[in-house]
Write a structure and sequence with these properties.
- The complex is a heterodimer of chains A (about 140) and B (about 130).
- Chain A is of the alpha+beta class and about 140 residues long.
- Chain A has two helices and five strands; from the N terminus they run E-H-E-E-E-E-H.
- The longest helix of chain A is centred in the middle third of the chain and has 17 residues.
- Chain B has a five-stranded antiparallel beta sheet with strand order 1-3-4-5-2.
- Chain B is globular, with a radius of gyration of 17 Å.
- The chains are: A alpha+beta (about 140), B alpha+beta (about 130).
- Strand 2 of chain A pairs antiparallel with strand 2 of chain B, so a sheet runs across the interface.
Chain lengths: ~140, ~130
């Protein structure tokens, strides 16, 4: 896949904002008593920011899938706060995209990490998946 | 606490529509999402250690370092195995692997911190600027 089919450039950023409601707490995910933003939700928001940044600059028929995600959860965020997650495209290596991620709540930085995503042809991806399903 | 290095914890569950990428904002990528794999991995580690902790304590996730190796279509069963590698004071280090019916799909370095729930609530309430735990 030629990089020319995408207009992604190193240094591009994208931000998503989420309010922390009861449905995204660790308690809600089963870790009783922890009424704070859950780590897997931060991972979800990391991926959302990175994936959306990529999607905005890819041709139709292309998408990205997550290959690697890292997250350091630095501080707890109580229900009611707003969290901003910023993705920065750090590296483009053929079909491989590497993003830096950072999350902040109303008070402080709460998480940092990276997400590596691979650009895929959706048609080809579906074909391979169907093969696995049939195996 | 009765936690020992070398303990393993497991979970086995079928991948349903609810865990698919296109339900989580990645349209047309009809597979088990990376964050959901992370969620199941954390669940295994959390639920595994909880019975070994004294009343009033729990664990909070601090580090996730996960490689998603292969895509899993809906209908397959995923088995997640968490291995408690290291206990370093209140810090617990896990190596977690996930397999579907066909192959290994993910591996993860995961760390959790044992915390006193009352103190944790206090800290969070202070950050909220409000009163009382929630």
């Amino acid at each position: 896949m030629a990089p020319a089919r995408m207009n992604l450039q190193q240094g591009m950023t994208f931000e998503v904002t989420h309010r922390v409601g009861d449905e995204v707490t660790a308690h809600h995910l089963g870790n009783e008593g922890f009424h704070v933003l859950a780590t897997p939700i931060i991972v979800t928001w990391f991926e959302e920011a990175a994936r959306t940044l990529a999607a905005l600059h890819l041709e139709p028929g292309l998408g990205t899938v997550g290959a690697l995600v890292t997250a350091k959860h630095l501080a707890p965020t109580p229900v009611g706060m707003t969290v901003r997650v910023k993705a920065t495209l750090r590296e483009i290596d053929g079909r491989r995209l590497l993003f830096d991620l950072e999350a902040r709540d109303d008070k402080e930085k709460i998480a940092e990490g990276q997400n590596e995503r691979i650009v895929v042809s959706l048609a080809k991806f579906r074909e391979r998946l169907a093969q696995k399903q049939a195996s | 606490m009765s936690l020992r290095e070398g303990m393993t914890f497991e979970l086995e569950r079928k991948v349903t529509e609810a865990e698919l990428s296109d339900r989580h904002g990645n349209p047309w990528v009809h597979v088990f999402t990376t964050p959901k794999v992370v969620e199941w991995m954390e669940e295994v580690a959390t639920n595994g250690v909880q019975p070994h902790l004294p009343e009033g304590q729990g664990t909070a996730g601090t580090v996730v370092n996960m490689k998603h190796l292969a895509a899993t279509p809906v209908g397959l069963t995923v088995k997640v195995v968490a291995h408690l590698k290291q206990i370093d004071g209140r810090r617990l280090v896990f190596w977690i692997e996930a397999f579907d019916d066909v192959e290994k799909i993910a591996e993860c370095h995961h760390e959790r911190f044992v915390v006193d729930l009352a103190r944790f609530h206090e800290k969070v309430a202070k950050k909220r600027g409000g009163s009382g735990p929630r």
